[in-house]
Amino acid sequence: MNLIYGTPSEFSTSLKFEASWDYCISYCYQMSTCLAAYYQEEFPEICEIFEIGNLAKIQKLNAYSGKFMAVKTTSPSECSVSSNDSLMSGTVSTESTWQNYSIQVSPDFWIIDSSPFFKCPENFKLWQRTKGLWCMGVVPTGEITRLDAQKMCAENFQGVLSGFDSDFEHTSAIKAAVPLVPKSTPYKYYGYYMDGERKTNCRYLNQTGPDCNGNKGFLFSDRFVTTYDHYLWGFDNQPNGMSDNLGTSNCVAMRVNSKDGAGLDDLP
Known about the structure:
InterPro entries: CTDL_fold, PAN-3_domain. Pfam families: PAN_3 (PF08277). This is PAN-3 domain-containing protein. By secondary structure, the protein is mainly β. Helices cover 12% and strands 36% of the residues. The chain is elongated, with a radius of gyration of 26 Å.
């Protein structure tokens, strides 16, 4: 938090309540979406909280004003080198939201420019991939075809079936899916469709070769995945969809049971 003498100059909405200056700063520090806190040496003591996107300009004042502002910069856990830096920045994020901002410092004002607010659907988690921000969630549906799963992703979430860009993403998906598995079930595994569909030239036993081995035998549409090294297939010789020579087990799915994940599989 950077502490300065100042007052809000351009803003839309704020939250006001009675509180000491120390409590006001602490409240903003712990609030994930808080950008700045404002306080005046008056009675009763009033704390004013500004969330990111709601404050555009702060007017700098002298020490005799009795007006204070605390502004998050760099990150909630680091201090900026100096409140006199000509350009500072920060990020406000949660497990499912993200927004950053920059602060241009002039002799009289702090001018704040906020990025668009990025929010994932309910029960989805936000991942900061190398290629950009990505929302991913596990959606329980009952029995469903891959085509219907793709349609549901597009219609309900304006999205696509997701892949895994890291082991952390895979582990997170397993943690979300395991509680959805019934404790008593006749099935060894439950599968959740994800990104990956077998190439048409890799579906039968006579279509073998290096171009059809492992991940190479599939087409992918999650354009934010940088590597497929995190597609961890099941130890029971997966993917083995070609072995029955029916040409139907072409869809990548994440398998789970009531206790843990069981690797990826290629299913109809």
